[in-house]
Amino acid sequence: MTVTAKRGTKQVAKSAAAPPKAQGAQSTRAVSPGGDLQAQFAAAAAAAKSTKQRPDNATMLKLYSYYKQATEGDVQGARPGGFDFVGGAKHDAWTKLKGTTRDDAMSAYVKQVERLNRD
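Above: the chain sequence. Below: its structure as tokens.
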């Protein structure tokens, strides 16, 4: 199955069967001892949708950038135009994580969601 998404004026096709690409070396560090990082990440992604309170914008950008780094790797493409303030902020947050491994981004995402659900 192939999913086609538009980015700006370009169309990007992604295969649902192919695993997401990650840049850099993979880390073997997990968030909690004996836990499966993939399962924790999936659970955190589901838990992020039902937090007690809506996180502030800075926290939302962190969550976005960690999620994108974990699922797609380093940012690609040009920064959105000057009047796309939200798109520019998202691109900048994701760019700050350039070079972060997939596992490290997953761990940071899980920890951030745990902090949100604790408060």
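The two ends are 40 Å apart (CA to CA).
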